[in-house]
Automatic annotation (TrEMBL):
It is found in: Cytoplasm. The keyword Cytoplasm applies. This is DNA-binding MarR family transcriptional regulator. It comes from the Bacteria. The keyword Calcium does not apply. Transmembrane segments: none annotated. Residues 12-142 form the HTH marR-type domain. InterPro entries: HTH_MarR-typ (IPR000835), MarR/SlyA-like (IPR039422), Transc_reg_Sar_Rot_HTH (IPR055166), WH-like_DNA-bd_sf (IPR036388), WH_DNA-bd_sf (IPR036390). GO terms for molecular function: DNA binding. It comes from Rhizobium paknamense.
Length: 152
């Protein structure tokens, strides 16, 4: 193998490793901010989805978050125990469960507004730079998903 090729096979040259490291750093940055809200990072994402659209079914919530029911169910149980959500079975179809915010869960949204500003400060990014980065990452995700769909 040539030296040029070997240089590309170092960790620092790998996009996946850069994304992994950035993800870990972002999650660590969120942790103390979310602890003050009484949430873990996955719980925060779930609450964000519910703040966007309250009263979602577990299946659609899982699809939106990219979580399977084995991961989502215990997360929802903990949010319910914390008083942020309720889970209600559909009377006409017991298999369907609807997730709704409680008053406490809806009120948490006001306190969560500061999280995004704190993350922006920690990143040293303006709102415009954060939006640009987010769009680039969404584009990358979409292209990778499309490539997976075509190879299936």
């Amino acid at each position: 193998m040539t030296d040029d090729l070997e240089a590309y096979l170092t960790l620092d040259q790998q996009l996946c490793f850069a994304l992994y490291g950035a993800t870990l750093a972002v999650t660590r940055t969120y942790k103390p901010l979310l602890e003050s809200l009484g949430l873990t990072y996955p719980q925060y994402l779930t609450m964000m989805a519910l703040w966007e659209e309250d009263g979602q079914g577990v299946k659609s919530l899982g699809e939106k978050l990219g979580l399977d029911s084995g991961t989502l169910s215990p997360l929802l149980k903990r949010l319910e125990q914390s008083g942020f959500i309720t889970r209600r079975r559909d009377a006409s179809d017991e298999r369907q469960v609807t997730i709704s915010l409680t008053e406490k869960g809806a009120d948490l949204k006001v306190r969560a507004v500061d999280v995004m500003a704190s993350i922006g400060d920690a990143m040293g990014c303006s709102l415009e730079e954060m939006a640009s980065l987010r769009e680039a990452l969404h584009g990358l995700r979409d292209r990778l998903n499309a490539a997976q769909d075509h190879s299936s």
